[in-house]
Amino acid sequence: MLPFYYFLALLLYIVTLPFLLILSKKSKYIKSVPARFFLKNNSFFKKKCEIWFHGCSFGEIKSITPIIHAINKDVLISTITQTGFNEASKLSVDVKYLPFELFLPFWIKDGVKTLVVLEAELWYMLFFIAKKKGMKTILLNARISDKSYSRYKKFSFFYKKVFENIDIVFAQSEIDKARLLELGAKNIQVIGNIKLAQDIKITEHFKKSDKFTITLASSHEGEEELFLKALKNCDFKDKRVFIVPRHPERFEKVEKLCVEFCFKHSLSFEKFSERKEFLSDIILVDILGELINIYAITDMVILGGSFVKIGGHNPLEPAFFNTIIITGEYIFNQKSTFERVENYYIIKSSELDDVLSNSNIQKFKKSNVLEKIDLSPILKELS
Q: Which terminus of the chain, N or C, has fewer Cβ atoms within 10 Å?
């Protein structure tokens, strides 16, 4: 299978090369694409360390922080996104962008004992080369969402080959375990979502307003318009709103939406980056890494990524602060996480207007994290 797979990777690389060159000029990808697809300033890790973690996103990298602190060993981290790279860089470890699979056979060197890959990063070449180099391979926080399950099943023959090179799987739920077994995974332990083990830390303390504070958190394309439309009947005499887009490249577009809405409805507006007084009716949080600090002064959180078909976002962080949690129907990527949260409301997009204008909004039940998970099975494998 390897020669055929490598040929397909080479063919894909050649076909997409013009697109990659264009993409490498865009601000969002100006560092990641050159590093991953052209190996610009991206040789393998210089230090020989025991454990190599690989995760895709900001959230995945953040979730392994308690594990890295607990094992107290030199580790390496690779990622594929700019936000993931920035978060990993905070941990004072060697960080790299994981190259496209075409380059992995000669990019990965000897010296690492264990490879730990997060969630659904099922790269065939990554696991294959790691095993050839004598590494123990672990898939951590593994999940198969409802949406992606049918796609995985269509290519089950391929994923069986991937799982032949994975020694241990730590799954988020029994449903995930059943699906992973069907795809060929072995040696599976269900431990829950490791994000439950995170220590939620406030990096900057802001004064909580006397007004009822609502935060639209990690919003995606189309959700800000929906949210603002639902706010038109709200009485802002006793309310304040934060809007926190998921992706920084959308800050400017969301700012325009907010300015237009505030002008039309005679409301005040400010950007988080310009001042932190929070005196306006609507505040756009246009800096990454501030969401936890905002949750700490929030009464109600509207979780983004759930009113459009993204799959939802992590409810554990707002639940830690006992906020009222409102989410849309599309939470297929977060089902196991929501099982660990007590008191949250799932609503349709059409109901958002009624919720935000409800005169008894302050009486909604507050959320709570039911339990943290035990990391000891993971730490045992990494010891």
A: C
Any idea what DSSP says for residue 363? G
Q: Is the dihedral of CA 176, 182, 185, 188 positive or negative?
A: positive
Please give the model's pTM, rounded to 2 decimal places: 0.75
Q: Count of domains in the chain?
A: 2
* DSSP β-bridge partners for residue 137: 115
| Residue 349 and residue 241 share a domain | yes
User: CA-based diameter of the chain, in Å?
Assistant: 66
Asked if 90 and 113 touch (Cβ cutoff 8 Å), the reply is: no
Segments forming the whole domain that contains residue 356: 212-369
Query: Residues 235-270: pLDDT tens digits?
Result: 899 999 999 999 999 999 999 999 999 999 999 999
Q: How many CB atoms neighbour CB 72 within 10 A?
A: 7
3-state secondary structure of 112: coil
- Residues written for the chain: 383
Say if 352 falls within a structural domain: yes
223 shares a domain with 167:
no
Residue 119 corresponds to which tokens in the numbers above?
């969630």
313-366 tens-digit pLDDT: 999 999 999 999 999 999 998 888 898 899 999 999 999 999 998 888 989 999
Token pair for residue 321? Answer: 């602060």
Q: What is the CATH number of the domain that holds 129?
A: 3.40.50.11720
Same domain for 131 and 265: no
Instruction: Answer whether residue 345 is part of any domain.
Output: yes
Q: How crowded is residue 151: how many other Cβ atoms within 10 Å of its Cβ?
A: 10
Same domain, 243 and 145: no
CA dist 32 and 17 (Å) reads 15
Report d(CA 52, CA 151) in Å as an integer. Answer: 28
3-state SS assignment for residue 201: coil
CA distances from 279 to 229, 245, 250, 267 (A): 22, 20, 23, 11
For 313-340, b where at least 16 C-beta lie within 10 A, e where not — what string? bbbbbbbbbbbbbbbbebbbbbbbbbeb
Determine, yes or no, domain membership for 378.
no
Q: What are the structure tokens assigned to 269, written together?
A: 């507006």
